[in-house]
Specification:
Layout: H1 3-19, E1 23-29, E2 34-39, H2 49-57, H3 62-66, E3 77-81, E4 84-91, E5 94-100, H4 106-121
Antiparallel strand pairs: 1-2, 1-5, 3-4, 4-5
Helix pairs in contact: 1-4
């Protein structure tokens, strides 16, 4: 079983619990590999996931790059698009990102915390 297969159930459950029906997709990634763990049934499975993964991989070291800050520790990243968002978390040598429909900004903290918890535990 790959790291992605081990993460599928707990990551999808955590993201669905935090985001609900606004969850569009969920991807687990490492520096060398990735897997789309979830894709909502009304979406096209031909989307270019690799392009998003390649960009998100660039930021594996970003959390440490901020160093001590008056803002506290780095927690997660949200990218806003016209029709939705990407929320990404990284924990050591693995990460995950979820794409969502438009939703209240407060929900991002909840989903990031849930996803990070799964990455730490598994």
């Amino acid at each position: 079983m790959t790291v992605h297969e081990e993460l599928r159930e707990p990551l999808v459950s955590a993201a669905r619990a935090a985001i609900g029906d606004d969850l569009r997709s969920l991807v687990s990634f490492t520096p060398d590999d990735y897997e789309q763990l979830y894709l909502r049934s009304d979406l096209d499975s031909g989307a270019d996931v690799r392009r998003f993964v390649e960009y998100e991989r660039l930021w594996f070291g970003a959390a440490g790059e901020y160093g001590p800050s008056e803002l506290g520790d780095y927690a997660f990243t949200v990218r806003a698009f016209t029709d939705g968002y990407v929320v990404r978390v990284v924990e050591a040598d693995r990460g995950a990102f979820a794409t969502t429909d438009r939703m209240p900004i407060a929900q991002f903290s909840e989903v990031a915390t849930a996803m990070r918890g799964v990455l730490r535990e598994n």
